[in-house]
Amino acid sequence: MGWAIHIHLIAAIAWIGGSIFMFALGVSMRDKKAQKAVYPHIGPIFGYFEVVALMFLLGTGSYMITDYGLIELLFTDYHSDVVDALRTKLWIVLVLLIVTVIHFVIALKTNNKERTPLQHFVSRASSMLIFFLNLFVLHYAMVIRDIL
After folding, report:
1. How many Cα atoms within 13 Å fall on the side-chain side of residue 56?
2. Counting beta carbons within 10 angstroms of the beta carbon of residue 90, is it exposed (0 to 12), middle (13 to 18) or buried (19 or more)?
3. Burial of 34 (0-12, 13-18, 19+ CB in 10 A)
4. Which of 14, 18, 136, 143 could make a disulfide contact with 53, Cβ separation 3.0–4.6 Å?
5. Average pLDDT of the residues of the chain
6. Which residues lie below 8 Å from residue 94, measured CB to CB, with a gap of 6+?
7. Domains contained in the chain, number
8. Mean pLDDT of 68-82
9. What is the largest CA-CA distance in the chain?
């Protein structure tokens, strides 16, 4: 499992670090003209980079769950600190995936176009939710690592 944890960590750094960067950029850029100038250029590059990081996270995470023999335990009534923390982490990851897909669809659909108020709201809200969900996923990753 040695190689998988290293790739997983690098992908997590890219995913969460990118999320923090985009969150900071969104909060710090108050000028709407500047936002409209920056986001159409950074957004697509960032989005594709993040999709690759997410694919590596999902792939290595699935591999490690299987390699540790935890996959069978996740679908039973078995309880332990590791399995319970992993279940919680995976539920958060599922919500994170759904929110990410929603955000990505809006971003792709509206890049270089004017967003409707609803699209703007959902895009901003999903971006903020992605940021906070990432912090919860990171927390449970650390809980699992401490137990192991």
Report:
1. 19
2. middle
3. exposed
4. 14
5. 91
6. none
7. 1
8. 92
9. 54
22 Cβ neighbours under 8 A, 6+ residues apart: 46, 127, 131
Between 98 and 41, the more confident residue is 98
Q: Residues in the chain, how many?
A: 148
Token readout for 44 is 């697509």
Residue with tokens 């335990």: 73
Domain membership of residue 54 as a residue range: 2-147
DSSP of 82-137, one letter per residue?
HHHHHHHHHHHHHHHHHHHHHHHHHHHHHTTSPPPHHHHHHHHHHHHHHHHHHHHH
Token pair 């990505």 is found at 104
Q: Which two tokens stand for residue 80?
A: 């332990």
Task: Tell me the pLDDT band of 117, cut-offs 50, 70 and 90.
Answer: very high
Cα–Cα distance list, 93 to 44, 78, 87, 140 (Å): 22, 21, 10, 10
